[in-house]
Amino acid sequence: MDIKKNTSVLIESLKKIKYQDLIYPGIFMFFFIIILIIFLFAVQFISKNMNKVFSSESDSPAQVLNREDYESIAKKLNIKVLDTEEQTTTASIETAVAVTTNSEVAEVATSSASQVLDKRSITIVVQNSTAKAGAATILAKALEDGGFTKPKTGNADKLYATTTIFIKESRSNYTASLLEEIKKIYPAVVATTTPESTPFDATIIIGTR
Length: 209
Known about the structure:
Number of strands: 5
Order of helices and strands: HHHHEHEEHEE
Shape: rod-shaped
Distance between the termini: 152 Å
Structural class: alpha/beta
Largest sheet: 5 strands, mixed
Strand order of the largest sheet: 2-1-5-3-4
Radius of gyration: 55 Å
């Protein structure tokens, strides 16, 4: 009974609806459908265009430099163009020069190290020409402490005013080292050469100053 009653009520309600009442809802639905269709087409259009843009960027072939055009432009601008072989040769030369330079530096360093003087390789005698006893022994001890071999000591035949180093010319490269040590005690010391026949490589005579 309830179903029949509800059905009859619905039918009566539909009968009461007028045609004019359906116009505005119908127009609204019509425009809604049109807007929905336009929106779907717009989304599809945008999606296709975006796919084309990204695919064209990834699929586009890499641009290759035309060497003839590049060389012609370079000639007009006075720019030197090196061939691949020339570039390789230049790089090889630069590498060879760098290796040679490093080798030369290493050789110079080795040579310098080998030229370090061996102070114990020369023979020295210290002679005292003054009346001050023990002066030769004191200087000989200072030279030994400075790295030289232990000098012989004695007295000179005559008096010297200035402390003097007599050194063979073949051993003259030791002069600076001897002067450096002796000046600590005798600042006025001088040096000169002596004949190669002299018994000692260096003869040091202590003077009054």
